[in-house]
Amino acid sequence: MKPVSSAPSSSPFAAAAKNDARRGRAVRCPTCQKLFIYGESPFRPFCSERCRMVDLGRWFKEEYTVAAVDQTPPEEEAILPASANEDAPGLD
Question: What is the pLDDT of residue 70?
């Protein structure tokens, strides 16, 4: 008598689960949203070199930005007393 298994071994889900366990987990490419096995791609976190280059091009075109607070101090204005302005030569 053959043992009865709880899940059919020919199921595509069973095969995918087995492959994921051996090679890593399936994730979506941030550029094209295609599912790929993370551990198998040399272009991680992208699925291909094309997606990696598309993302790099978006950074170069400044389509992505990183929010930041301007930390440069405001320029100090040179405030001169009224008498100093009157005594300055050549400012007629």
Answer: 78
Right CATH for 10-64 from 3.90.550.10, 3.30.50.10, 3.40.50.1580, 3.60.15.10? 3.30.50.10
For the entire predicted model, the pTM comes to 0.47
Q: Which of 22, 52, 25 is CA-nearest to residue 36?
A: 25
The first and second tokens of residue 45, run together, are 């976190």
Element (H, E) at 85: helix 82-87
Tokens matching residue 75? 């320029």
pLDDT > 70 fraction of the chain, expressed in percent and rounded: 54
